[in-house]
Amino acid sequence: MCSFIENIYTTWEEFAKENPVSNLENKRFIYRGQTNSFLNEKFLEWEIVSSFNRYYSKLHYRFSQFISQQIAFMDSTYSEYEFVKNSNILDSNIISKIYFLQHYGVPTCFIDFTYHPLIALYFSISSLKGQSGGRNTIDGFPKYYHENYCFTVIRIDTNKLQTIIGIKDLEHFQLDLFLKYDSYCIDVDRNIYAQIALDLFPLQSTNNSNNFNLLKQNSCFLLFDNASCNSISFEKFIHLFIEKHHIQINEPFITKYHIKYNTAFKPRRSRQPDYTSLFKFLKQNNISGKTLFNDIQGLKYDFNFFHQE
User: How many CB atoms are closer than 10 A to CB 40?
Assistant: First the structure.
């Protein structure tokens, strides 16, 4: 049986070539960039897990209870902040509030994706830190990190994902998200299940026109609430579902592009004087913190690579 995940080890140039921005109107593929991490010289590739389940997986804390508290805090406490007042978010529907909280660091069961491959590429290097000095490869690229350390851009074919797994579109609701929450339930068996849905057109479900980030980042969302199996990633859940239901997979519908850390940085000019660095390439395509955010977050991300132009 063919695996539903394809792993491709490539360059960022080849990734950009294989995923042209001319395909944006198609809306078939969604993308997510992940820097991954390493600790004590051990590399860790991140799997697809929501920030809520990552932080609260051991506490048996339900997402519905948590997010209801956060929305109550928004009305009672966050409402005193000027940037909250200026956003008009307090008069918005619940999904608008959830996405607003998500953009400002509150853990949710929604996982950010984008239709724009270069925006995903930008976020894949957002936590990558450069260094000064050090050795270079024969091609002039720095040896900041171990040669096997990679950042990842994940591409999902939503048509195949929904057809094969039966994942629904998130309803564009005006009231409580959790009124129909159980309708998004996908079962592996009676002990392993999750609420999964896709919001491929979030601008239609929100009623807050001031969500600059949502618009500029070509955003879409995967709802993945794995409360019943909180140690299981999205990939692992899909694997168990396919295995349990004996589904034949003819070709992958999730592609992971793995790109070496060191190639994100510009090489020595003496060896490659005409080379366009990744950060410069992204800025040339109007992808930077300045264009993707309207607050300090964009500056924070750009600080990592401003010297790479």
Answer: 4
Q: Which residues pair with 33 in a beta bridge?
A: 153
Place of tokens 């940037």: 83
308: closest CA among 286, 272, 273, 281?
281
The span from the CA of 250 to the CA of 4, in Å, is 8
Contact 176, 94 (CB under 8 A): yes
Element (H, E) at 280: helix 278-284
Q: Which residues are 142's β-sheet partners?
A: 136
Contact 192, 226 (CB under 8 A): no
Q: How many percent of the chain have pLDDT more than 70?
A: 95
Pairing of strands 37-39, 42-44: antiparallel
- pLDDT tens digits, residue range 69-119? 998 988 888 888 887 887 788 888 888 889 988 988 899 999 999 999 999
- Cβ atoms of 248 and 144 within 8 Å: the answer is no
Please, where are the H alpha helices in 47-198? Answer: 51-56, 63-76, 82-87, 94-103, 117-124, 158-165
Coil, helix or strand at residue 258: strand
Which of 27, 242, 53 shows the shortest CA–CA distance to 113? 27
In sequence order, which residues have a C-beta less than 8 Å from that of residue 155 and are 6 or more positions away?
A: 19, 29, 30, 31, 117, 254, 255, 256, 257
216-236: pLDDT as tens digits: 899 999 999 988 887 799 999
Phi and psi angles of residue 143, each rounded to the nearest 5 degrees, phi first: -110, 55
HSE, side-chain direction, 13 A CA sphere, residue 65:
6
